[in-house]
Amino acid sequence: MAQNDVLLRCSNLTKVYDNSVLAVDHLNLNIHSGEIFCMLGANGAGKTSTLMLILGFSDPTEGSVEICGIDVNKNPLEAKKHVAYVSENVQLYGNFTARQNLDFFTKLAGRKDATDEDYKNVLLRTGLAEEAHKRKVKGFSKGMRQRLGIAIAIMKQAKLILLDEPTSGLDPKGGMEFLRLIDDMRKEGCGILMTTHDIFRAKEIADRVGIMSSGNLVRVLEKEEVEKSDLEDLYLQYISQNITHGRIVSGKK
Ligand SMILES: Nc1ncnc2c1ncn2[C@@H]1O[C@H](COP(=O)(O)OP(=O)(O)OP(=O)(O)O)[C@@H](O)[C@H]1O
Ligand SMILES: [Mg+2]
Prior knowledge:
Rossmann fold; 6-stranded mixed β-sheet
């Protein structure tokens, strides 16, 4: 797939929850092959809700999501083949080893051709030392779980990678190493949508930065603007101008 191909297309994406909270409000966002898009936003701005809609875990009230040109709501199984998700708390089987978790999730993703050598290499690539490959993950640190989450995403060979606060709670070295991995995936042509509260890291790694407030992107900055601007200052300006929590709407759309 060529660089700059559109991997994700959100069109007028809207979510009103059953409690009438408007969490995502007519969002338009495209993610391209070979780019990292960092989404910033206050607590309750609608970042995770957006990811849940993209993943098809929640149905949009209005609008649509396409992954590699496939509509997530019309053809969820086909669309999901092209996306991998790593959350802040990667869900793993505690009584399985790292290697067993990787094998399980790789097969679940439909890949039956992976060899022991592939598993070993990907775990080493993500920075999990060999002694950890055959250890049960219930004793793993947060950073180790994140690394395993990325290994699962790599094995899936998905083009679109969604990350929800992936470096939250990691130590500075772990956070930096994790972002280096993400950067490698970008170079290999993946498109990455990552939510974060870490403005410093967003500035460092992003090709574009979006500021989300009240369920929509109130500002998107290109790389040159990100480099030139005082991102923290800009972010605070936008956040202070907008209501930061999901709004209650009258009636459901
Ligand atoms: N399942 C749900 N049912 C009802 N309301 C929800 C649900 N999930 C989220 N919300 C509400 O939607 C709004 C957006 O929440 P969301 O979790 O998407 O924000 P966020 O930007 O990810 O915040 P954070 O930075 O704290 O993770 C909030 O007002 C939240 O309370
Ligand atoms: Mg969230």
